[in-house]
What does this fold into?
Amino acid sequence: MPEHPTPPRRRRRRLLLAGGLACALAAGFALGSGSAAPVGHWRSAEGRAAYLEAYDTAFAALPEPAETHDVRTDFGVVRVYRFDGSGDLEHPLLVLPGTAAGMPVMADNIPSLLRVGDVYAMDLLGEPGRSIQDRPITDDADKAAWLDQALDGLPEERFHALGLSIGGWTATNLALHHDEHLESLTTLDPVQTYDDIPLGTVVRSIPSAFNWMPKAWRDSFNSYTAGGAPVQDDPVGRMIEAGMQNFRMAQPQPTRITPEQLGTLEVPVLAIIAGRSVMLDPEDAAGTARSALPDGRVEVFAEASHAINGEYPEEIAALVDDFTTGIEAR
It folds into this structure.
C-alpha cells in the first residue's frame, strides 16, 4: 500500500475538530437522530447566539470572501462563500465540511486550496452553521437534491468537489444521484463510503453523545479520533462544542455506500485515507476504493488521524492540484 512520508505533526486546533464531527456522527448511528422536530433547529436563542459568536470569530481567520450566496432550495437556504484563488483551474473547488461543524472547520485548508483555484465553501443544510433548513430531509435522495439545487443556484456550472468526513460522503452521494455539476470528487477520510464506522468507535462515542453530559467526555472522544491530540480551547473548538451542545439535527444518518454503487460513478475520484483513522478501517477502505472506483486514485497518509485536513493541509492541496489539473488536461 503506497504511503505518504510523515511530516512533522501539526498538533494544532483543527487536528481534533474532525473528532468532534465524528462524535456527533458516530453517536447518531448508535442512538438515531431522536428529534421530534421535522427540521434541524437550535435548542435556544442563547445557544444559537453562542454558536454564531464562535462561528464569526473562527471565520475571521479566513481570507475575505469575494461573494456570499444564500441559495434557496426546496429544503431550505444554503449559505455559500466564494473565495478568489490564484490558481489556473477552469472549474472551482467546492469544499464541504464534516458534520456538526460549519465551514470554518476548513480554515486550515482554504489558503492552500486557493493556490489551486477559486474556492466555494458551504455550510451543510440541516447542520450547525448559517444554512437554514425549513423542510424535512428524509433520505439520501433528499440529501443529494438539496446540494444539487444549491449548486444549480451558483454562477458556476461545474465544480471539483472536496469533502471531509461526512462532507466526503455528501459529495459522493451527490455524484450517485446528480453528477451534472461535478467535474471531479476528492474525499478526505469519508465516513460510510469505503468502509463502515467500526463498532468500537460507535460504542466509545455514546457517553459523549448527549449535550447534558460533561464536556470532558466529548473532549476525550474528540482526542481519541484525532490520534490522542489534546483538545484546545480556541474559536473553532468553541464553535464545534457550541454546535454539538445547542443544535438538534433531524435527519437520517447516511447509509453506507456500497462497492456496487461506487462502481457506477462516472466522475474521477481522489480517495485520501487516513492511516490511523478510527472512523474506518484504513486497509479495508483503501482496498475497497482501489477495487470499486472505475476512475479512482487512492492515497494513504500512514500517520494521519481522522482530522487529516488539519494535519496535512499543504500535502492535501498539492494532491488536489495534481489531480484536478490532470482531469482538466484530459
Q: What stands out?
A: Residues 13-329 form a domain with the Rossmann fold fold (CATH 3.40.50.1820). The first strand starts at residue 41 and ends at 42.
